[in-house]
Amino acid sequence: MQPVVRPYFPATVAVVFVVYFAVLAIDPRSREVWIAEIIPIVLVFTGLVISYRHFRFSNLAYGFMAVWMFWHTLGAHFTFAHVPFDWLNALVGGTRNHFDRISHFTVGFYAFPTTEWLLRRGHCRLIPATVFGLLLVMSIAAAYEIVEWWFAVLADADAGLEFLGSQGDVWDAQKDMLADTLGAVFALTVYLLIRPDRDPALTGRTAQTDHRQP
C-alpha cells in the first residue's frame, strides 16, 4: 500500500494552519501560558517550511505532524485544562479534562516522519530507524515534563499551574509520557503498513534533491 503523492497538500495545510494560528492567537485565556505553549509549535512549523525545498516528507507524514500542531494550538488558546471537551469527559467518566492526554498522544506521531527521514536518507535500516523514532519521542516527552516543571517553578502561581496542567493528578507526568509513547507506537505501526520509504515518487524526489546538493 503506497501513499498518494499530492504536491499541493503540504502547502494547503500550511496556509490553513497559519489562518487557524492567527485566529487562536487573539485573546487567549492566558497570554503568558499561550506564549510558552506556542514556542514549540512555531519552531516545528518554521523548521518544516525551511526544510521543505531540501526534503519533502510524504503527505501522511505531514498529516501526522499537522494533527499535533492544530491540536496543541487549540490547547494553547484555552489552556489545556479548560478546552471545551466535556463530551469526552462524560464518555470516559470523571471530571478531568483529557484534552491534554490526546495532545500528548499526537506528539508520538512524530515517530513517523523521524523514521521516514532516516530510511529515505539511508542513515540506517528499518529496525534501527523505528527504534530511534520511538526513543526520540520518549526522550522528548521526558524533556517536556522537565520544562513544564521549570516553568511552573519560575512563572507566577496561576500561569505555572495552567502550563503544568496536572489537574491534581500526582501521576500526570508519567501518564503524559505513556500517552506520547503509545502515540509513537501507533504511528510506527501505520508506518510499517504504508512504508513511504518504498514509494518511487518520494524516493526519486529525494535522490534528485541529494544530487543537487554540493
Summary of the model, kept short:
This protein is an all-alpha fold and 214 residues long. The chain has helices at 9-24, 31-51, 59-78, 86-92, 99-107, 111-120, 126-154, 157-164, 172-194, 200-212.
Q: How is this structure best described in words?
A:
This protein is mainly alpha-helical and 214 residues long. The protein has one domain. It is built from ten helices and no strands. It has helices spanning 9-24, 31-51, 59-78, 86-92, 99-107, 111-120, 126-154, 157-164, 172-194, 200-212. α5 crosses α9 (172-194) and α6 crosses α9 (172-194). The longest helix is centred in the middle third of the chain and has 29 residues, at 126-154. The protein is globular and about 50 Å long.
Tell me the layout of helices and strands.
Layout lengths: L8 H16 L6 H21 L7 H20 L7 H7 L6 H9 L3 H10 L5 H29 L2 H8 L7 H23 L5 H13 L2
Helix pairs in contact: 1-3, 2-3, 2-8, 3-5, 5-9, 6-7, 6-9, 7-8, 7-9
Broad structural category = mainly alpha
Q: Which word captures the global form?
A: globular
On the 0-100 scale, what is the average pLDDT? Answer: 86
Summed up, the domain count is: 1
Fraction of residues in β-strands: under 5%
Cα-to-Cα separation, first versus last residue? 34 Å
Uncertain regions spanning at least 5 consecutive residues: 207-214
Keywords:
disordered C terminus; mainly alpha; 214 residues; 10 helices; 73% helix
